Amino acid sequence: MKRIRNLTTILCYGMILGACSNPSSLTLEQRADQVSRAEMESITELLGNDLFEGRAPGTRGGELAEISVQSLFKFMDFEPGIDGSYFQPFVMKGFSNDGFDFSANGIPLNYPEDVVGTFSVEETEVNLTGEAVFVGFGITTELWDWNDYKDMDVKDKIVVTRVNDPGMVNPEIFEGHTLTYFGRWTYHIEEASRRGAAGILLIHTDESAGYDWDVVRNSWTGEELYIESNLQNNLKFRGWIQESAVRRILESADVDLDSLYDASNSRDFRPTELGFSFHIAGKNHIRDVMNRNVVAEIPGKTDKRIVLSAHIDHLGMDPEKAGDNIYNGAIDNGTAVGAMMVVAKILKEFQEDLHYTITILACNAEESGLLGSRFYVENTDRSSIIANINFESTPVWGKTNSIMGIGARFSDFEPMIKELAARDDLEYSTFSMSNQGLFYRSDQFSFARYGIPAVWISAGEDEASGERNYTEFWKGDYHTVEDEFNPEWELEGMKQTIKYALLLVDHINRTLTPPKLKTELPFPVEK
Ligand SMILES: [Zn+2]
Known about the structure:
Blueprint: H1 2-13, H2 17-21, H3 28-33, H4 37-47, H5 60-75, E1 79-80, E2 87-96, E3 101-104, E4 107-108, E5 115-119, E6 125-134, E7 140-141, E8 146-147, E9 158-162, H6 185-194, E10 199-204, H7 206-209, H8 213-220, E11 224-226, E12 237-242, H9 243-252, H10 257-264, E13 272-283, E14 285-298, E15 302-311, E16 316-317, E17 326-327, H11 330-349, E18 356-363, H12 371-378, E19 385-390, E20 402-406, H13 413-423, E21 427-429, H14 444-448, E22 454-459, H15 469-475, H16 492-511
Parallel strand pairs: 6-9, 9-10, 10-12, 15-18, 15-19, 19-22, 20-21
Antiparallel strand pairs: 1-14, 2-11, 2-14, 3-4, 3-13, 5-12, 6-13, 7-8, 14-18, 16-17, 20-22
Zinc ion binds at residues 311, 332-333, 366, 392-393, 442.
């Protein structure tokens, strides 16, 4: 740390003195190149502190994160972003259970080894029986002329669905191994809900989900949070079931799962009534969870705005866990909030040059399904938003060979990033983990689904040294208690992320040409 500070001092002597004490005499790009280690570290170190207790929405640590970000906004002289306030409160329904009884065709399953889930209904005792229907991938879309439900009425039934999409088994359809919006488990639930199903069971395999059962179990055995707009219709139970458990049940009913799978790989598939019912019964704990997005703005010459976003929430604590039980989320999403704040701080220094207003959205409840960003977009004058630049789990290691724009391919962000990156001899890249659907899993998607050009900006995976720390993070420490602040981080990837976010804003601001969304998209756009 000390060495780098000294280096900055030496650089300053080599330049006009005023240039260092008054950043406005620098160009934006020069300022971006001078971002200090302290600027990058400070907010990550703060939010990653154990005292924030993992920043789960509606907890003491979560509230501390909201208050801290508000203080930072005030300190940096940003304007309140929501009708004179920095806070945009919203209420979520929290549902949890201590396990439940589950049986199918007379066979009991074990919680949480075989099955996990949530009762998403305002009843404290749920006793649900529904005929079992296998619906294949459970996808209906004109985009690939695909309709798994056909004319089957699944009202009050419990549907069993594969996750992922048919591109998983046939690279010629959908986007092949690149997971589409229709492959995400969130979509499968939305579609079952639209059709009036009483329950849904998502079949888990490591391959189709992209992660193992432990990840599912960890994220589905605590409290699940919902906002009004995702609690419509009839759906009382949403859960996951291990494929091995599905096989056990189906064998007892003389049904072959692989034949069902085969049939569901085709457009001609029809839903299959399995000939037995699922019984799910247990106690349901319900509470209202209050939490807040924290929103600021830096006014430009027009009300048209670019929204910078990063979620401040993470997974909280696990009281059952021995030893370290705090999910600090230092990278997810401390470094991203840190990067966003440095970008905003620098844009404030260049406020006179801003044509567009900059909104800084520190959103909440991302880990519960992008709820805060969705609430923001659903309750804002969307016509004023020209673009969203999102920060998510910003890499903190060595300098990388590329700049990534996750979701850039859906808009003019892609050519923009390519052109800017080429100036520094950097490649343009996208995630190697395209089977994970990461574009649909962070807050930029809340904007894109409403037709707003959106990108998750990040330094790439390949470091100049040949290391791939970022890729390893996603396969290792991501969503574990190991995601902790480390003073040894090189922070070069973070610096690159900050710089390219700034260059994107600068480019839009100078050319006065907002990026446009492509007309053909692999996901539906709502009005
Ligand atoms: Zn995240």
